[in-house]
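Protocol step 4 of 6: structure prediction from sequence.
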Amino acid sequence: MTEARRLADKYGAKVVVTGHSHAARWKQEDNLLYVNTGTWIWLMRLPDEDASDDEWIEFLKDIKQDPKLEGDKNKAKLEKRFTPVTVESSPQGGAAIALHSWEPSDELVTLYQGVVKS
């Protein structure tokens, strides 16, 4: 948020949209909305943050045995996640902004949405 605030102050913006952080983000506080679209390249799905040591060891063994992640049994799965931002005029004035995710089911799901007054 520090960099988003710096950019907002420098350009007189109420919204800062960035990308390529590898994780989509949304944070709205005070008079600033920060949206990060993440990245749309292939990423490796890691074990859950509460995964056991044994799960991590198995995951790392899989990567060592199949570094190109080509095997079907490999626990290190690759995924692509398209997370676009839309900006539209808001009927209340200002802009309606939303962060979406395009799901494997071909459904566009809204993750977050908000209105920024002009």
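Step 5 (inspection) to follow. Residues 40 and 81 are 6 Å apart (CA to CA).
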